[in-house]
Amino acid sequence: MKFLNDLNEEQRKAVEYNSGPHMVVAGAGSGKTRVLTYKIAYLIEKGMEPESILALTFTNKAAREMKERIKAMIGKKAEKLWMGTFHSIFARILRAESKHINYRPNFSIYDREDSVSLVSNVMQDLNINLENLTPNGVQHKISFLKNQMILPEDYEKEMSSSAADRKFHEVYKEYQNRLFMNNAMDFDDLLLKPIELFTNNPKVLSKYKKMFKYILVDEYQDTNKAQYELIKILSPSRDKICVVGDDAQSIYSWRGAEIKNMLNFKKDFKDAKIFRLEQNYRSTKMILAAADSVIKNNAEQIAKTLWTENNDGEQLTIIRASDEKDEALQIAKRIKKEVTNRKLSLNDIAILYRLNSQSRALEDALRREKIPYKIIGGVEFYRRKEVKDVLAYLRVLSNQDDEESLLRIMNFPQRGIGNTSISKMIAFARRLNISLFTTMARVFEVIEVKERIQKNVKQFKLMLDKYIELKDKLSISELTSALVDELGILKMYKEENTPESMARYDNIQELLRAIQEYNQENPKGTLDEFLAEVSLVAGIDQYDEKANAVTLMTVHSAKGLEFPVVFITGLEEDIFPLSPRFDSDSKIEEERRLFYVALTRAQQKVFLTYARSRYRFGEVAYQSRSRFIEELDEATYVEVNGPGSRRAGRKKKEVIDEYYQESYDDFDQERRSLRVGSKVSHAIFGVGKILAITGSGDTQKVTIAFENHGTKNLLTKFANLKLI
Ligand SMILES: Nc1ncnc2c1ncn2[C@@H]1O[C@H](COP(=O)(O)OP(=O)(O)OP(=O)(O)O)[C@@H](O)[C@H]1O
What we know:
By secondary structure, the chain is of the alpha/beta class. The protein contains 32 helices and 24 strands.
């Protein structure tokens, strides 16, 4: 097999090994993905049927790319591989086997936002208020428990007798119950339900065990308990299994990932063989030395030494900025320089941050400098309001028990069915133990609802019935177009004619286009399958590498990617690492691994930036530089002080260039127009009235009485106040 020549000796050994369970422990950039890809091609070339190989990846994007690569190596038969994320593969299996767990195959898949909304409805219905937990927090806790396979009944056994625990348990139990009633699953169910399925149905299990002759798992360091159980349950005769991972890149413990799955592989799988890949093909020697000097501060890790034959490369550059705006401006300027000096295109550059909220200042600066950028993970396409509205209609057409989706569309676009009437219908549904959808058919029996509104409900129900009937006669694309037309939402957004409504208009058009493409690519694809697919799309999956633009994303999303030039921003205590003061050692170690992941994305050059002060939680916070910078080997970096150094405050005019002048002028403009008595609005605190102004220039402060947040003292420069 000629393609084996693309591998180094150790990689090749791992690819050819076939005599038992094995784990490839590989450092960053050492060819993990390559080994996995080649191994699958190798197995097929050796005669294994593609449909008997199960390959589990961390993102849909990784699965797609690997499949493409394998197709290029061995041809079209690669299409038949079972390759995808845990969630998408098991959603597919659950759909086929739904009757064994008392679900119907058209079950809805709730994303995080849907789950939060369900939690919130449950809390309202049970009239439960959890003092310290918002619906968001409750959802997070539920998800964390589910990831650890702790169901309500398990939780009940372990919980304390405190009122808070009891209330939480009640919400959790009812949340699970509602999911079931709605014929819906949340993301965590997509891993838990298959365990239930396989455990309670030995015949089904044996069918899949026979079918999957080989299991391969990517990013093994970030598997959680449920994923681990699934691998163990399914791994055929326990020997045809290959996992790859890097313990130094385990960054998802907050979502329940367990690094110990990797550390315990040898115990779990008898006679497991370990392959180590230590040659890095991605980065310069300098970048590897820097990464190594940081990660060696972690106590918990599998020993390995990464080396490379690549060039020595340049030192890292550390840039100090005065605040987040200055940081962003300096980055934008640098990018222009780098592109010219290194003859790079913009998609060779990534800007990474720890927190999504850091992106705003960066985006502002890039826009002003007219540098095209793409942002990954913001509000993802399929999570946008207008897109979800249309999808909610499709979900109801597919699964009438999906109460969450039905509630979303009941009065959208407005059809005169208010919340009070909806509550009354829900009460009726609960009393009779029927679904809300069925209640709509019997709305004339719900005497508490006014006659006029009963008619509106009836009409809405008739419309849905019509499309439910049409859904098997039309393609998904025709169905959706007809529906969107009848709802008149495109027209509605067009008439509103605001930038926001036009963006919504475009997004719905884009959705119609996406559905058309889906139809073309999957002529036999059903509405249920389409909905399952879009529910599982993550931000990174839509990432277009070819678009000529700088990439902005969190370090978490950057896992597995590589770029010639990488900026790592916000290197300050409390940002990166996040919350060091309150955290245990293990959390700091995870932050350090995250920093390691960030550094090792770079091929040629790394810039590290930090700001002396930063606007956070509505106030200016003075920041101290991240411990991770202090941990870097001194030989691996140089520091430059941009105009953000302290000197800049005093001698601003001398050190800042025209561009900065312009941006400071903007501040001054805003400041001059503020007066005692002016009404202003603030991004977080809302509307308020200025009571006093003290000081001037950069240290000017305003005292504002906010309508809903009391009186606050803010530094004008950072408050970003808008006059009303
Ligand atoms: N034997 C090899 N010869 C040449 N290039 C290689 C070889 N192995 C890997 N590479 C290249 O090195 C880079 C990193 O490989 P890959 O992405 O497979 O590593 P990885 O271990 O999955 O990385 P990470 O875990 O850091 O994301 C890729 O550009 C890949 O093409």
